[in-house]
Structure formats: structure tokens, C-alpha cells
Amino acid sequence: MARTRLYRNGELEAEDFPLDDISEHLRSADSVVWLDLTDPKQADYDRVQEEFGLHQLAIEDALSPHERPKLMHYAQHLYCNAYAIDFDPESGDLAVHEVSAFLTKQALITVHAAEFDIDTVVRRWDDTAELAGNGVPWLVHGLLDVVVDGQYDAVQALDEALESLEDRLFEETPQAIRQVQQRSFRLRKSLGRMRKVVLPMRELVNGLMRAREGIVGDEMMPYFHDLYDHVLRVTEFTESLRDFVATILESNLAVQGNRMNNIMKKVTSWAAIIAVPTAVTGYYGQNLPFPGYEKQAGFVTSAVLIVILSVGLYIAFRRKDWL
């Protein structure tokens, strides 16, 4: 599928027109075209490459999945790659959607899979239509602004999930302990994937602002500075979550160590209590004469010793909170 839009002098003039009409529209210097490709094939790339003169290496990057977020400079255009992310608080999984874009003087070509919601970007453009006169920089800003806002929402949702996990660290039930361990591992894995796509966004946005082609004009520069500030906020938030996850893992290990110590104290205390009747009955079970030997008084004495010593140890261990 391909979507198109034509802006002329800052006004939306046409939409969803055929790709064959793009060349005609681009003949006018005051025209800006947006072309969106969803799950394109090699033939689609060949057609776009011929139409816009895109570099072969940029096409290869767009065809290759899981490229890192980056900004590449070519003679006729720029190429950038970014990732929109969605975090599921219930499962703790992170969904990553790759978005590629080719930037020319009069056109923005976006490439993505069907999972990416391009309608959100279109609505962002419609909400800021007063800036449409800035052409391609305005289109790029709207695209990256949606991506960065989604990243911030995902980081915030991950932070809330980690806080709820922290509250469950001291639950004593075996099921809760197992769930905390599984969820902490899943959230740590999601955070690792998030850092890989969030941290490089600083270089991408900064590269657009300082591009030698001078793609960002004076009117759009404050908006890109604001976008860069959002990127820094997401980056710092992500880095703080890294320390948060490390703290949770260390706290979980400490709690497990304390539980193990308590269990060992209880097992040792019960072993000491059980050792009392074992020692007494062993003493009275010897074949040598002793006070009360072969008399009922000997049995009563041994039984009383077992009860008194066992109860005494139980009370002493309870006072020390070992039982």
C-alpha cells in the first residue's frame, strides 16, 4: 500500500494520488510530497529509487531489518532510521516498530511495517498545519515527535511496572516469589531492548539540526530543539530505570538471602529440639545401670526431661524469633 499527500505553499492540495503523478507535482518548486510505503517489496523500492534518485546503500538499509537508529547523508538525500515502541504493562513485553525515512528537498518517503500506526503521524501533521509552509522539515519533525512521544509513554509505563514490582518484593508466598523473579527478568529484558532504540535518537535528532545540507530552517529550529529536549528526557529516564532495575535485582537477592537465613534458623532450631528426646532416650536406653534403672521412676524422669527441655528450647527460640 502507498499513501501520498501534496502540499503547495503550505496548503494540503491533494491526497492519495497515484505514484505516477509525483514527478509532475515535483516540477513546481513550492510543492512538497509525502509518500508512505507499508510493507514494500523490492519492486516498490526500485520504482521509488528511480523516481527520487535514492542511493543504493540507503535502499539496502531500508530493506534490512533491525538496523540501528541512525542518520545517513547522501548526495541527493538523507536517510534516517528510528523505532517506535509499545510497552505492554500486563505481560512486560516490548513491541518495536521500525520506521525508515528518505528526506529530499521536496519529498519525504516513509517506510514501515503495517504494525506502525502512521495515522497518528498524519493527525500530528493536521494539528500543526500552520507550520506546513516549512515543507520537509515540518514533516520530519511530526514523524519523529510521534516516535519520541511514544518512547516516553513506554518508558513511563515501564517505570510504573517496576514500581509495582518493587512493592511485591516482600511478599512471602511461593507464588509471589516466583512471579517477582519471572517479571523482573522480563522487565530487565524489555529495558535492554528499549535502551538500544532510545539512546541513539540523540545522535539522529542532533544530526538533523546540524546537517550540512541545512535542512532545518530558522523557523523550525526551535521545534527541533524542543524535540531534542524530549529525546534527552527519554534518555535520562531510561538510564535511571537501568539503575532502578539493578536496585530491584539486588534487593531481591538480599530478600532471598534473608528468607534463606530465616529458614536455616528454623530448621536448626527444630533440629535442636528434636535432638533433646534423641539424647535423653539414648541415655536411658543404655545397658548400664543408672538412676531409675529398670524402675518406673526412670521412665517418668526421662519423659519429664524430654518435655521440659523441649519446651524450654521452643520458648527460647521463639523469643529469639528463630521459630
Structure in words:
Belongs to the CorA metal ion transporter (MIT) (TC 1.A.35) family. It holds the Pfam family CorA. This protein is 58% helix and 15% strand. It is an alpha+beta fold. The protein folds into two domains: 2-256, CorA soluble domain-like (Beta Polymerase, domain 2), CATH 3.30.460; 263-319, no CATH class. Strand 5 and strand 6 form a beta hairpin. Helix 4 (118-127) packs across helix 5. The radius of gyration is 34 Å and the shape is rod-shaped. The mean pLDDT is 85.
Named CATH architecture of the largest domain: 2-Layer Sandwich
Low-confidence stretches: none
**What is the makeup of the main sheet?**
7 strands, mixed
| Inertia-based shape | rod-shaped
Strand adjacency order, main sheet = 2-1-3-7-6-5-4
CATH topology of the largest domain: Beta Polymerase, domain 2
CA-to-CA gap between the ends?
Answer: 69 Å
* SS content category: alpha+beta
Transmembrane segments: 267-285, 297-317
Protein name: Magnesium transporter CorA
GO molecular function: cobalt ion binding; cobalt ion transmembrane transporter activity; magnesium ion binding; magnesium ion transmembrane transporter activity
Organism: Dactylosporangium sucinum
